[in-house]
Amino acid sequence: MKKFLVIVVTAITLTFAANLRIAQAVPFTDVVNFSGSTVDYLGADYQKISGSLLTSPFVYTHTLDLDPPGLNLNSATLSLTHVGNSNSWLFVFPLEVWFTSSGGNRYIGTLSKSQDGGEWITNTWSLNSNILAEMTNTTPWSLTVKAKDIGFINGKIWLDKSVLSGDYTPIPEPATLSLLGLGLLGLLGLGRKKIT
Prior knowledge:
Blueprint: H1 2-19, E1 26-33, E2 47-51, E3 58-63, E4 70-86, E5 95-101, E6 104-110, E7 121-126, H2 129-135, E8 142-149, E9 155-170, H3 174-195
Antiparallel strand pairs: 1-9, 2-9, 3-8, 4-7, 4-9, 5-6, 5-8
């Protein structure tokens, strides 16, 4: 009877543990909506950035409020929606997007050309493992983005939104680990009884 009870408790415990989420990837999305203009352009409120973005880059931050809390960041992409990424001079100096951290600046990508009065364009970049690692060194996890012009001429751009999305591994719940541990202890006890 004791042996039967140990087998039943072990089976139930392992079944519950197997059905609970143990370190499965959880998706996340964080959106920064830019505003600052009362004019609605093509269905979007936007922020006009002008002047020398070489000497005074435009900086904003994505902050991840994760539930459940995260253990590590598996992957992430950054999307930036814009229009007017051109210059009134003969040459076009597109904006570059950088990740800023205590470890310095890391290049993310360059915005494609978008004409004044044209359609909104969205550029999307995958963030590399170095950027992901540095993001998890902040509490809460965050991505500070710096948009800067690579030319010396004053320019302008209209920004609609920035979207940071991806997935992360959550910190395993203590109850899940306890159930798994109890199941393994039951199997260990069952194995010892068979030996003796």
